[in-house]
């Protein structure tokens, strides 16, 4: 009699948990960035960029989209990286820093730029640790 390990079932379960966690983190980050934008706007920070207003919901939509791209990256790293957690954290920190560059050069006031950068950092602070915890060290 021999025992076999069903690696496919274990991988599916791990990837499923990763995706569930990532989606929940994306929802939380989207809500958080909309709150940050709304509070900033209520405090008098303009949400205008290039002469056009950024809707508060736009913060949530873009946060969700890019967060879900991050979840896909994490799922791929689970399959292809030797150290998925380490690779994911390093990659997403670099991408977060790079995401600040357009905010710095945007056609917007200093307060608006700061608010945009804050929303990026808030989203990263929510999504990166949540997803990283689901990845193998």
How does this structure look, described?
The protein has 137 residues and is mainly α. The protein has one domain. 78% of the residues lie in helices and 3% in strands. It has helices at residues 7-42, 56-80, 84-105, 110-133, and strands at residues 48-49, 52-53. It has a two-stranded antiparallel sheet. Helix 2 runs antiparallel to helix 3.
How much helix is in the residues? over 70%
| Order of strands, widest sheet | 1-2
Number of strands: 2
Order of helices and strands: HEEHHH
Count of DSSP helices?
Answer: 4
How would you summarize this macromolecular structure in one to three sentences?
This protein has 137 residues and is an all-alpha fold. The chain is 78% helix and 3% strand.
Itemize the secondary structure elements and their pairings.
Elements: H1 7-42, E1 48-49, E2 52-53, H2 56-80, H3 84-105, H4 110-133
Antiparallel strand pairs: 1-2
Helix pairs in contact: 1-2, 1-4, 2-3, 2-4, 3-4
Main attributes?
single chain, 137 residues, mainly alpha
